[in-house]
């Protein structure tokens, strides 16, 4: 007989790395710097809306400055304390909640990696512009911050961040498998 043939084998495979790099601290995709900027701008815009609304309330509480407390009040010129002035206060409160809520949700959901937050940022920008139109010039600071939030969500690093999150969310963990046998009571080694 001749030489025995050796079995051909392939070299060992290198350890597979996950396709999406995850943070070892959080187990989530690492956030780019622009995600921090967008979320920070959104939260600052919400704080600015709160400040503008508080300033409006301070001016509206004093009869001398009520007429100039907001543009909407100047345009309609209601009598203080009447039903129309109370209705306009409700409109301004609702506008504050809508504008701040839309921008805050857009910033928070962009931070969490949801792609739809791009469009929420644009809607928040429009609502913030409407809020600034009916309140005061101070609200334009919030419009600028909402613009930063909306623009940052469309930048290429955020696009890659959203794609990483969609890959992470697409992976399903292995389901629970009930064990074949469960021992009840004290373990034999402790008897």
From TrEMBL:
Alphabetical keyword list: Membrane, Transmembrane, Transmembrane helix
Region (Disordered): 1-28
Transmembrane parts of this sequence: 33-55, 90-109, 116-134, 140-158
Keyword Transmembrane helix: yes
Protein name: Uncharacterized protein
Record organism: Tessaracoccus aquimaris
